[in-house]
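Fold this sequence, please.
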Amino acid sequence: MYGRCGSWWRGGFGSQFMGGGFPWGGRGGRWGRFFGPGEIRLALLSMLESGPKHGYELMKELESKSGGMYKASAGAIYPALQQLEDEGMVTSDQLAGKRTYALTEAGKAELQREAETVKQIWQRAEQAGDWAPWMGMEGAEVMRPAAGVMKAALRAATRGSHDAARIEKIREILERTKREIESLEKQS
């Protein structure tokens, strides 16, 4: 669910749709995980690249980089940091009453090996941040019907056997609907 340990709304269609417009992946389901398998550890390693940080700083940075869409919990971050320490990717020291984590040479090497994945993680986080202002309770109220409209439009367009007139009609309906909704926004 939204706000829990990095879970957030994810629709059934993929981020490739409309040039990566949606920040979630298309692995199915209504609610999903922000990070895929092994990605949280890469995100943590990449944030430690700029210097040592304690767990709370890492949690806040993850939230900030996702525009508030990902709210990390201690139950997700500290076990991942412990795993990284066990693997020799990070070290930890107790400074000013807080455990601070730093990247090791092995951690730097892992980041180099996984550079493309790390890049994709932060691109996805940036896209999520773009959607954050509209993902509150009001946004959740219209997400299901909006997804239903999109599904109906795609179904109608793909069943037309390359019927240009049908596709144009669908585009007209969608554009008219968009203009009507935008006019509501201007009224407020």
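The chain has seven helices and five strands. The domain at 7-133 is CATH 1.10.10.10 (Arc Repressor Mutant, subunit A).
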